Amino acid sequence: MQLNDLYGLAARQGIKVHSAKCPNSAAMCLNTDYGTFIGLDSHIFKNESRERLVLAHELAHHLTNAYYDRHDNEINVKRMEFRATKKQIELLIPFDELDAFLFEDCTVWDVAEHFDVPPELVKTAMWVYYKKEVQ
Predict the structure, then answer these.
(1) In the structure, how many helices (H) and strands (E) does the chain have?
(2) Which residues sit opposite 108 in a β-bridge?
């Protein structure tokens, strides 16, 4: 999904996306009695690629109901973050597209460039989809 597609998905889900100062992170997703909100600290985004990556992750928190707060224990926080990361991978590196792209001499860097994501996310995708660790 491209950045405009992600904003469209947010709108269809009824999520309001706003610019917000997020001192401890690039963004946050809040689920309240008044609706779901995503705050993006747009001042820190150097390019559209980073904004796309962060927005997909915050949308993934909503789509998987992976919310937590500052009082949650570390295990729950990591569980919710991994759940959101898995959904972020589905949004940005769909299995069918990844499977069709892979070829014998393909590197993690080739895949990362093709999907415009960091190599670390590709490595996680390989584990999520294929249960393979790659270098």
Answers:
(1) 6, 3
(2) none
- Residue 132 contacts residue 111 (beta carbons within 8 Å): no
Element of type H or E holding 53: helix 48-63
In whole angstroms, what is the distance from residue 99 CA to residue 43 CA?
35
Model confidence band, residue 135 (pLDDT cutoffs 50, 70, 90): low
13-49 pLDDT tens trace = 999 998 888 777 788 888 888 988 998 887 787 888 8
Residue 66 buriedness (CB in 10 A; 0-12 / 13-18 / 19+)? buried
User: pTM value?
Assistant: 0.88
